Amino acid sequence: MNDTSFKPTIYLNRIELDGNTYIKLYYKPNEKILHRIKQNDWINYNVKLSAWCVNYTEKSIGLLKELFSDIADVSTKHLNWTPRPQLRVKANNIGKWAYETPALEKTEKKGTITLLPYERDGKKLIGFKYIFPKDQYHEIDNSNILNRDKKMQIWYIAANKFQLKKTIEYLMPQYIVKISSELKISDLQLRCMLLEQSYKKDRYFKSCPMDFLAYMQLHNYSRSTFDTYHNMVLRFLNTFKGHSLSRINNFGVEEIDSYHKIWMQKSAPSASLINQSVNAIKLYYKVISKQTLNLEDIQRPLKNKNLPSIYSRKEIKRIIESIENKKHKTMIFLIYSAGLRISELINLRVEDILVDRKMVFIKGGKGMKDRYSTLAEAALKMISEDIKEYKPGKYLFEGQYGGKYSTTSLRKILHRAKQNAGVTTPGSVHTLRHSFATHLLENGTDLRYIQELLGHSSTKTTEIYTHVSTLNISQIKSPGDMINL
Question: What's the pTM?
């Protein structure tokens, strides 16, 4: 006689959603139950309910009892149960649903290790600096994977794919492994491994297909766009936990639109984030899907027409003057005086500064476009002094270990400078670029020239600065001034 007293229980609950009635299955995590569900395609995973469901009929209840009779008890005692209403007054919950389980769950790790390339005695190496706990230090030292240069206080390996893969796999269980911008990784499996290292990988985790990544690599997508599109597609694929990859690849426009609508209702992401997701998913189906899909029918939210924040000329002056370090001062002033993006500044080389023409050459800016921009006399003088003092190698502004300067460090420099200067206007390093354009416009520079200096493809992008400029608006007399109170 079989003992059924230890069988798990599946509770059935009737639920109304979008005018339809479903039976929602509640059960404690159980591999046997989940395996049985996966074998029956009439039980579907509902993203809105974050649960397995079937259409409500009396026949469905009988079928569920029969289906699980040998591995679980199916209970209907909570079939008509509804949760007791609770009073919650909290602004950020209005109009939103809470995720029961996020599409991608993060793992807990001890710290971050950044790998950087360097040369020693003519040999190409990859190394990192990190202080491990004593017990782990000895374990790593004896692992035969990493070598230790005690003089330089750096862990290192030979710069080849085999050693790099072995090192990443060794460190990943406990650490987030990042790659210096100077270390170029073209191997897609390694890139995918690094991009997906932070997430828990259960048996239903779907990695981003290599064909999609290969397409982006072949078409020379920037590192930033590559990483963003990978993340957006990964989130999309793993939201549908109950579906196979082949089934998701056969989704239509309706399923894609539904995904974004549910995301907006659950966590209210910004319109720009949803638009990024739409762009990534459209590209994914263009590359992967074998069906004819009218991707232009995919809905997207209207972009917010927010005006950029601007620093005044006086605020710029106070910010620059509050920076004591010469190199830091030069970088911040150069971004403002030439209207550079932060990535464009850190990619500058010494030869890109055209002293005789008082110009800077920006190679491979946004959209892989080259352009020229103007340089102030003061900026040229500061750059000349920096070159004499710091003697840069490959890049005009180099970091502590050579190579490109860190964008994170540059943001910290501006943040400290604003604090020291008492500037409270909201803004980032990119606000210096906005300020450059606005101040040129207010000084009478033609909008077409500003477009060229900024590297905008369309004048519509540059026209936003006509709305930001307050020069003409400040000269308008308010009707309130015409009333004598």
Answer: 0.67
